Amino acid sequence: MALEDPVSLAAHAALARRYRSAAPERILWNDTIAALLDHRTVRGFRPDPLSPDLVPTLVAAAQSAATSSNLQLWSVVAIEDEEKRKELARLAGGQKHIEHAPLILLFVADLARAELVADEARAPKEGFEYLESFTVAAVDAALAAQNAVIAAQSLGLGTVYIGALRNHPEEVAKLAGLPPRAAVVFGLVVGWSDATRPAAIKPRLPQSVVLHREVYDLAGQSAAISEYDRDARAFQEEQGQDPVGWRALVLARGASAAALNGRDRLKAALRALGFGLK
Amino acid sequence: MALEDPVSLAAHAALARRYRSAAPERILWNDTIAALLDHRTVRGFRPDPLSPDLVPTLVAAAQSAATSSNLQLWSVVAIEDEEKRKELARLAGGQKHIEHAPLILLFVADLARAELVADEARAPKEGFEYLESFTVAAVDAALAAQNAVIAAQSLGLGTVYIGALRNHPEEVAKLAGLPPRAAVVFGLVVGWSDATRPAAIKPRLPQSVVLHREVYDLAGQSAAISEYDRDARAFQEEQGQDPVGWRALVLARGASAAALNGRDRLKAALRALGFGLK
């Protein structure tokens, strides 16, 4: 890419927004890659209604993602009801955007459907009793959800994932009417961005930290992480947040079981919901 | 969408390929959604080399996906070495496409970097000892990987996920030189499709089975699953596969621990690799 090439200029600008001081020098470029790099998490939404065709569109995109052995061990519960959204906002630790946006998609790790198929055939279902099956279901739900995010963004909509629904898995499952052996892995809020609360592109760790060639290298990451810490601090200041840097976020999460806001109970909660997790 | 509208015709055709007899009547439509719906898993690759700019491009796309609390608990090990690809093909149960394509990206659930940060600060790291942290890492790796898939597809490349690397987590971790508290969740093979072995669009479950409005419904799924079973059988026949349908795939996976090809050991393997999974 020559720097005077407009494509190259756009790519450089996108990389500088995403990586700040540690941007890769060159990447391949097209409209899809431009859109992917431009992703930002939206937390300020207008209450404006969505097209009635939106949910089927997002689900068609989601179902078009790969799924392990075509087992399709995931489902979506689309919640538009205002009272339910208020309750989900509360269960997620007071995340008001769940209340403000008109739609939240609950992505479900779903072994219930597979067990229904087994039960109807009076067949054994031991294979679903393992941590592997929960892992497949959670990963497949994530692949599907990310396709929904890309589709929503292409339509001009904003999204934010809600992992905090795992703070209260049983209550969320009850609200969504889930049968045994199904659990919400995360939510995805979808709506029109509020232009008065614009979302920013969050800088990420340098590629030298995340990408390894042939062999993983841990020792070499520390200096680049420190460099990133400075970029993270600058970003936090721009956003009016406490400029604690990135290392501080990691330390806060690792500090104790209490730092998980109830998610230290995830295993017990999944077991209560009928997952074997052997 | 009026049916005579060419956009509408394209959307209908895409929905018919993805859903066969149970296609939704209408969806929103643009080039991005068209590309998402056109996804197909590629298993026939040409050995042709890839651009040296490809891996940084895919990783930039991957890092632009959302990540829980910006913790970035995932990494990629890019494997191009032919001997290593042969060994990975063997570990994945003889999946020759890993050997034939020039690149496999190993997506790593990575608590090692977070623990490095904690160790350097002499800080506690109890928060990472829970199933929650593995779940976050696996989900974030999946969100990232799916962005890489979309980017690769936009460049005309084919991909296939390799979940079977979980058949032998310790051996795969060793091959990739992973430190403790890191594990490969899945691989992603990337390469140029072999036009003599074209990939087909696999039909998915009807939306009435996967998408629920406000409340999940299990009892209503059975009839639509049977309808899908017919479409799945037709697809398998077209592909020269044994036309067993979809229910049979589910029953095979559920049949026994042995049906998991070693993945019934996933919990033990992750523990051996240093994950707490409390």
Can you put this structure into words, describing what you see?
2 copies of one chain form a homodimer. With 278 residues, the first copy, chain A, is of the alpha+beta class. Chain A has 2 domains: 1-38, no CATH class; 45-197 and 262-272, NADH Oxidase (3-Layer(aba) Sandwich), CATH 3.40.109. Chain A has helices at residues 6-19, 31-37, 54-63, 82-91, 97-100, 112-120, 131-154, 169-175, 207-210, 221-238, 247-254, 266-272, and strands at 45-46, 74-79, 103-110, 158-162, 182-193, 211-213. In chain A, strands 1, 2, 3, 4 and 5 form a 5-stranded antiparallel β-sheet that branches. The longest helix of chain A has 24 residues, at 131-154. Chains A and B meet through α1, α2, α3, β2 and α6 of A and α1, α2, α3, β2 and α6 of B. Chains A, B: This is Nitroreductase. Chains A, B: Belongs to the flavin oxidoreductase frp family. Chains A, B: Residues 38-192 form the Nitroreductase domain.
